[in-house]
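Contributing new records

If you add data, match the layout below exactly. Sequence lines come first and carry their own label; structure lines follow with theirs. Keep one chain per record. Anything else will be rejected by the validation script.
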Amino acid sequence: MRYFLLPLGCATNKADSERIAAVLESIGYTLADNEEDASVIGIVACSIRQSAIDRVYSKIHKWNQRKRKKPLITFVSGCILPEDQRKFLKLFDLLVKLEEVSKLPQMLKEYGVVAPQSFWEITPRRGSSYKALVPIQNGCDKFCTFCAVPYTRGREESRPSAEILTEVDELLVGGYKQITLLGQNVNSYGLDVETEMSFAELLREIGKKADAAPHKVWVHYTSPHPRDMNADVYEVQSSSPSLANYLNLPLQSGDDEVLRRMNRRYSLEQYLEKLDLARKYMPDLTVSTDIIVGFCGETTEQFERTRAAMVRGKFDLAFIAQYSARPGAVAQQRFQDDVAKADKKQRDIDLTDVLRETAAENNQKLVGKVITVLVEQVSRKPGKLLGRSEGLKSVEFESGDQDLIGNFVDMKITSADAWRLQGELIGFNEAN
């Protein structure tokens, strides 16, 4: 039998889908090229964004119509609010909680009792031969009022460091060149277990292993919470060649009152101090952030403070979202979603304009320099390939050699705009 999986939402859901795929393949299922060729279809859902939930309903409607013509089993798993779970139970054949993924073969084949297995113990089916996602922590204890994660994934749970380090060892032996550590609040790792190492200590051990690998490796992590960020992490990150010179530090708002309503538990001043400290340790750091515009009660003046914070932050990348209420999140129960959609859209445009200026200014500093790029795919433009820099900036260059994909190359940057660098290929990086 053939299966198809559709992960929605964040990178953590993608990592979860790799473990679900491994469970299916352990009982003989093979991956279908597309959903039409599959007899088992699973969706790894995300209740955090309404757009992702809307897509679930669109897909399951289509799949249930298909059942009239030929046999099909559907299941849903992932990051799902209780209210969405109740609705999905009526639409999908199976609802599989993440902690029960190892029981999926029982549910599908009813072939007998399977010994319980920890979700972390499942070896994922990697979606790439050179890039890997490694979850180190699950759940969240921060309870931001706009977010439903504590109610979909539960409280923070740190994965045992021994398991993480073993997985990293296996990836390095397998020749993987980019490893991304995942967690809802990745830098809160170890805070829930007195006997575990801290995030900085874990990062140091992973950096040592990557530095000792026979090939070049980039290690990224996402996403940290500003409240738990400290100099120890920056010191470790700056001391290892393999720990990427990149930081995603979500701001969410530049206004202290909005941050208070969001329950972020830091001020703009505290955020900027931590951002400045990161750049002190790593002067060439590429920085991205997350921003929500139009949060409940956000006034024009409060938004202007966010715009000013964007200018001050000089970010290279930003993930800007227009606020939408999610059932189960505190904000949906406590506050009114009272910012007009047109205002949210305009604020999104305004911040994108700021980002365009700061990103273009930062990217122009790279023109004429030689940087390392990990080649990822064929560009839509004929005769060109795409890759990413250590700071995850998109780089396009002329080449028809698809054997470069999955390898590090040296690139001279010839031009740049806010969203992409253009380069001239020099050759393979000697550290491949």
